[in-house]
Design goal:
This protein has helices at about 10-15, 25-35, 40-60, 75-90, 100-110, 120-135, 140-150, 155-170, 180-195, 200-215, 220-230, 235-245, 250-270, 275-285, 290-315, 330-345, 350-365, 375-380, 390-395, 405-420, 425-440, 450-455, 465-480, 485-490, 515-520, 520-525, 525-545, 550-575, 585-615, 620-640, 640-670, 675-695, 705-710, 715-720, 730-740, 750-755, 760-770, 775-795. It has about 800 residues and is mostly helical.
Length: about 800
């Protein structure tokens, strides 16, 4: 250190200044403009700073308290703080003279932080932050110091140090991320988080959580370190970590709400956010240079605000779930260790519930097996249990298809026996049915036929919540296993033979997924056209029955053609299934097809006879004509029967050859097993079409996959029964008055008309309208006639006996 200069007045007098009139802010501005001309002043102030610094260090070495000694004088502390801030401001202009000043200031703050007065400590910390922001000293060297400053009992200093650490790391990762530097900073915070000191671990946890929430350190290391803090020896640290993990989505939503509010405030301040061509042209071409600069800045602010809104809207539209639990390296070990701590801890019930939720969320997210967890939950499954909906939501979350059904079955039966019975309250029955539905959605093998039929009977309950829960259970099993339902409850399922997979059953892919869609491309694309064509054909056939002989002939031939097409389609399907068979099998198929065509023709004869019988009139002449028509039709059909057989045989053989050529061609296209980008795009489009058809057939109900269920959080409020209780008179009056708040004060129509500020009404205009004499006479005559009619009507009414007529 440099010793203090004794003759301080001499150099100041040489430069034409007096030491008594020394003003640090004015000297600071002049030294920035002319650094070389103020070396003597810098040397003086630097010497004064180091002399005061040495006194404070000697005081700390002698263990003096800050109340007595040198620190008791507020002027000395103020001079030291002012000179520290002064030197921090001018350090960039004197890098050689003040090369050791940043390290000396950091060492002084580290050694004497607890003994310094709060005001001096705050000023020295501000000076050090200024040096870090000017990049004269690195954040890596001062991070541990700033984290230690946060543990002091000084609220303003703690807030300043915390905001500086967060903003420095955020600014460092704004443009690009320096992984080596981030890793070094993370190691400092991770080491503090693992310490036994609760204050340091808490401040480290808060800093890591804030950086992770702001998506600055949004990596696996940070998420894993936060999750592992659940096993800290301090229960407060454990509770803080559990609340962060559980409320992560809530924190994000609050942050988005704050961003939305701030954007609304910006919109209120700057209402002209819409960018037009005129404003862009004015910003670049009109006005002076200064005005154009202002317009360009305003335009850029508007563009940034619009981009920010688009980003926020895209983030809100994308409901992509994220949780730090997803980045656990050893999820099974984490769950087992936390569950063992749950079994042995003596914390209050709310803390145990938080641990239960985190364990269940991790088990469902990573699809883990923790068999002891379900009997532990079974002890708390009672309708009168505190926070029972949260507990049941955790139980639902911990169920997935990898868990053996035998392990969950006792818990499942406990829920059924405790919640769903005739003596239970409607709210409890509705909650139980909703929980059973959610568990069966994840593990359908738990349900048997007898239990399901008993539960389904609650659809007849007079309580709306109970009947709705029972109907939702019916809707679920219509899709996953309709055979468990009674026939009247099955409705019209999409797949009547649907059954859940057995435990451990996995569908192994032997080829590219959905590659069979390429072979049935024409069927998927033309299904809608076929349906519309079938409808049109059926309408035309219904309209043309029994009109005339020509109509009957055309209808007959149309029926023949349609049935031939059906036969050809059936044959084509059989070809697709048996394309690898031998020629002998083909001959046998041909014989069978001939037999089938004979049977179809016989059915046509019967149908034709039925149509003729249904269309016969009552008179006898019509009967004779119909019998003649039947005879002619039979003769024509018998004569053409052999020709039709030959034609059907040749057409079927031609269809066989065409189908074989088509299948060989399609197989030759994909024979090499290499699919191009066009093939994958086509598969994607065909899959979307098929899913759309399935969704339309399912009438809006779609069962999510196991991966979607593992990511999905179970909301406890959705398991509750929302039963609306009857309101009393005071509550009804309050609702009525609340509905009248926006309504204005009542006024009569005459008062409203009198207060009218606009023009005259049509009736008032009619009174002032000039009319010819004939029109006036006609109007007067009409009024007289109306008066006479009114007088005649009033004379016929009985008004009672008058008192004076006696």
């Amino acid at each position: 250190m440099v010793s203090p200069v004794s003759g301080s007045a001499e150099p100041l007098s040489a430069s034409g200044r007096s030491s008594e009139k020394l003003s640090l802010p004015s000297l600071q501005s002049k030294m920035k403009t002319d650094p070389e001309g103020y070396d003597t002043e810098l040397h003086l102030i630097r010497s004064q700073f180091y002399s005061a610094l040495e006194l404070f260090q000697q005081q700390a070495a002698l263990n003096f308290s800050s109340i007595t000694g040198v620190g008791a004088d507020p002027t000395v502390a103020k001079d030291l703080g002012d000179r520290a801030m002064f030197l921090a401001h001018v350090t960039p202009f004197y890098p050689k003279q003040l090369a050791e000043f940043p390290s000396d200031l950091a060492a002084f703050l580290k050694s004497s932080a607890r003994t310094l007065p709060s005001g001096l400590r705050f000023h020295v910390t501000q000076a050090l932050i200024l040096l870090v922001n000017r990049k004269i000293i690195d954040i890596k060297d001062t991070l541990a110091l700033f984290m230690e400053l946060q543990t002091l009992d000084d609220r303003n200093l703690r807030k300043l140090a915390f905001s500086h650490v967060v903003h420095s790391i955020r600014r460092m990762n704004k443009n690009h991320k320096n992984e080596a530097k981030n890793r070094a900073l993370q190691n400092v915070l991770f080491a503090l988080l693992q310490q036994e000191d609760e204050a340091k671990a808490k401040r480290s946890l808060i800093t890591l959580s804030e950086l992770h929430r702001r998506k600055v350190w949004f990596d696996d290391r940070t998420a894993n370190a936060i999750c592992m803090a659940c096993f800290h020896s301090s229960s407060r640290i454990m509770i803080a970590v559990l609340s962060f993990l559980l409320d992560y989505e809530k924190i994000e939503n609050d942050d988005e709400d704050i961003d939305d509010l701030s954007s609304e405030d910006e919109m209120a301040k700057n209402p002209q956010v819409v960018i037009s061509k005129e404003t862009a042209y004015k910003a670049h071409h009109k006005g002076t240079t200064a005005s154009k600069k202002k317009k360009k800045a305003k335009l850029q602010r508007a563009i940034r605000s619009m981009k920010r809104k688009q980003r926020l809207s895209s983030e809100t539209s994308n409901n992509s779930y994220y949780s730090p639990l997803y980045h656990l390296k050893d999820a099974q070990g984490f769950v087992e260790k936390l569950f063992s701590r749950l079994q042995t801890c003596n914390e209050r019930f709310e803390v145990k519930m938080m641990m239960l939720k985190v364990i269940a969320r991790t088990v469902g997210l990573h699809r883990l097996i923790l068999l002891n967890f379900y009997p532990f939950l079974q002890r708390y499954v009672q309708p009168h249990q505190k926070d029972i909906t949260n507990l049941l939501a955790a139980a639902v979350q911990a169920c997935h298809d990898v868990v053996p059904p035998d392990a969950v079955e006792p818990l499942f039966k406990q829920i059924v026996n405790q919640f769903v019975h005739d003596r239970s309250r409607p709210e409890a029955i509705a909650v139980g049915l909703n929980v059973i539905r959610e568990i069966c959605l994840r593990m359908p093998l738990l349900m048997n036929e007898d239990l399901l039929q008993d539960l389904v009977l609650y659809k007849k309950s007079h309580e709306k919540a109970v009947s709705a829960a029972a109907r939702s259970l019916i809707t679920l099993f219509r899709e996953i296993c309709p055979s468990l339902l009674v026939k009247k409850d099955r409705g019209r399922p999409v797949n009547p033979k649907a059954k859940p997979k057995a435990y451990g059953e996995v569908s192994v892919l032997s080829n590219v997924p959905d590659i069979e869609l390429l072979e049935h491309e024409d069927e998927i694309d033309g299904s809608e056209d076929d349906e519309s064509g079938d409808e049109a054909a059926s309408i035309g056939s219904d309209d043309g029955i029994g009109d005339s002989d020509d109509d009957e002939k055309s209808q007959y031939t149309a029926d023949d053609g349609s049935e031939d097409e059906d036969v050809e389609d059936d044959e084509n399907d059989s070809i697709d299934e048996d394309e690898g068979d031998s020629d002998d099998c083909d001959e046998e198929n041909d014989d069978e097809d001939n037999v089938e065509t004979e049977e179809l023709d016989a059915e046509e004869d019967d149908d034709y006879e039925e149509v003729g019988d249904s269309s016969k009139p009552d008179d006898g002449a019509g009967d004779i004509g119909n019998e003649d028509l039947k005879a002619k039709a039979r003769k024509r059909k018998l004569s053409d029967f052999e020709g039709q057989l030959i034609a059907a045989d040749t057409s079927l053989r031609a269809l066989k050859r065409l189908a074989e050529a088509k299948t060989s061609g399609s197989s030759s296209d994909l024979a090499d097993g290499i699919l191009s980008d066009e093939h994958f795009l086509k598969i994607k489009k065909l899959k979307a079409k098929k899913e759309a058809k399935t969704a339309l057939a399912q009438q809006g109900f779609k069962i999510p996959s196991s991966d979607q269920l593992s990511f999905k959080r179970v909301d406890p409020s959705k398991l509750e029964a929302h039963v609306r209780l009857k309101l009393n008179k005071e509550e009804r009056l309050a609702l009525v008055k609340a509905g009248r708040e926006d309504r204005g004060q009542y006024q009569a129509r005459t008062a409203i008309k009198q207060n009218k500020t606009g023009g005259l009404s049509n009736r008032q205009k009619e009174h002032k309208k000039y009319m010819p004499l004939a029109a006036k006479k006609a109007k007067a005559q009409r009024s007289r006639q109306e008066k006479n009619k009114k007088r005649l009507r009033s004379g016929k009414q009985f008004r009672g006996k008058k008192a004076w007529k006696q």
